[in-house]
Amino acid sequence: MQLDQAHQLLSDMLWSGLAICAPVLLIAMVVGLLISVIQVVTQVQDMSLSFVPKLVASVVALFVFGPWMLRTLLSYASKLILSAPKYL
Length: 88
Fold this sequence. Notes:
Blueprint: H1 3-42, H2 47-82, H3 84-87
């Protein structure tokens, strides 16, 4: 395997991983930011107030984006498996 091919495989893997986890991470980040603003305004500094909404938002995001995430992962894996003979 050439070094350029290895770099291309690594790059594809990292971009696919980023695309798969981005929706859940972005939603959790936005919810965390909103909860932090609410905590600053109301001066209520409770850790569970920050943790529980992010957890619920992440679970909802997994239910909403889960099928797309699975299709993306399966597409990447099948493309990688089908192209394996050309790397050997």
